[in-house]
Amino acid sequence: MKSLAQVVLLLVMMAPVVRAADVVPLPADKQGFGTARSAASPVWFTLGHQGLSEIFHPDLSTPATRETRLLVDGKPGQARTEPADDRSLTFRQRLRGDGWQAEITYVADPQRAAVLADVAVTAQRPVRLSVEHVPMKGSSEVVSTLPTEPVRHAHGTVVVGFGEGVAQAALNRGFGAVAREYARGWHAYLDGLRRPKAADRRLYDMSVMVLAATEDKRNPGALIASPSFPWAFGFDRELAPELGPYALVWPRDLYHVATAMIAAGDRGIALRALDFMLRRQQQPDGHLPQNTRVDGTPFWKSIQLDETAAPLLLAWHLDRRDRSTMDSLRRAADYLLSYPNSPFSEQERWENQSGYSPATIASVVAGLVCFAHLVQRNGENADRYLKAADEWQRKVENWTATRTGPYEPKPYYLRLTKDGRPDAVTRGTTWVTTTPPTSTSGPSWTRASWSWCGWASSAPTTRSSATPCGSWTSS
Question: Where is this region: Disordered (predicted)?
Fold first, then answer.
């Protein structure tokens, strides 16, 4: 038998380009997500139920591969995934198949665009090992030290690399050296943060690392919604011609993550997020599009007013009042004031209805008040922004709180009204659910309606009676 360390199987050498439309992504229930802290490693891996699922390269809007999985006698196993290190995005999968089991640990090389897997296999009979690799966009290379002849026991390394010679260079370093450097990067990151004493350490650290890992390395401040392609977005090319949309940047999601990272002690990521909003996402008229690629190119282009309010809120959290920032924020605030029938929005946060939404109105009112607060700190007059915020705050109940709906106690806020008449019963005017309920006594309600309540109890205050400048509380 040949020495395992000497057997190098080149599985795919500069694999041909495969159009994304020809490959259906794996299910979106990812079991793991990892990347190195280093910007020199523009690669992100995800884990599915049978091994590596999509690997992203050279940025987080580009799924370069669909899957890379171990086959034993031509068949995959089923994996159980767990963290291999509570303080880094190092994951281990334990796979089982017919008469065999395997343990695979995954990391990314901090020095280059490569993902490494340390593989150990034990079988009850001699089995033949192979690696199935399915590219999606661009070119990839796979090298392996697993044996090519049937074996009962095997231990080797599989590397997926992007660029000529990258996989081999990562393999030459050795899995152990790469894994140690990878872990040190995450350990150092966590050491610079703060953790609430009451927090579950493992859950808190893993959550913070996953959020930090969603930031693109070529485009600082661009944090995608998710490295996955759920529902019809993965296969319906009319709905999503280029695979999406979750590997994109929503200003709303970006705000949520940025404020979470401020709380965790990573102010830098929030500063970069605000810069990305204002320098890459904001359009000439002042609004922010529904979402963008990580380079700032608009993807879906509907208007959601709460997303244009997002940088106003984030800037307040960061107390960013320099001239360039304030000029951009002013364009966003002025857009909110000038939008036709504002705060009526082309879409609300669930992205499938137009109308008057308490969630959207809450965000817009808070955004205007927060911007006014920054303006006043700079010694300028902010009356026009506070006046609009006050007016919309006074009208929100008339637009969105029903006294005739089917639930108690009344009145209560609705998810949305099409025409600002919450007590109307005309189905075509006020029903907003995707599948209308059987009752005809009023429009629909969701927990997003509680956004207004959350905003109304927030602080700080200015002269305006519409005073919330805290974090969004809608679900």
Answer: 424-446
Catalytic position from the list 103, 132, 242, 351:
351
Residue 397: count other Cβ atoms within 10 Å of its Cβ. Answer: 15
How far apart are the C-alpha atoms of 219 and 56, rounded to whole Å? 14
Domains in the chain, ordered, with CATH? Answer: 4-170+184-189 (2.70.98.10), 218-456 (1.50.10.10)
3-state secondary structure of 350: coil
Q: Measured between alpha carbons, how far is residue 460 from residues 160, 301, 373, 407 in Å?
A: 50, 33, 9, 33
Cα distance between residue 191 and residue 253, in whole Å: 26
Q: Is 132 a catalytic residue?
A: no
Continuous segment of H or E residues that includes residue 171: helix 166-173
- For the cut 60, the answer to whether the pLDDT of residue 428 exceeds it is no
Quick check: is 348 catalytic? Answer: yes
Q: Which residue out of 307, 348, 380, 408 is catalytically annotated?
A: 348
Instruction: Compute the distance between CA of residue 320 and CA of residue 446 in angstroms, rounded to an integer.
Output: 34
Query: What confidence tens digit (pLDDT) does each residue in 94-105 have?
Result: 999 999 999 999
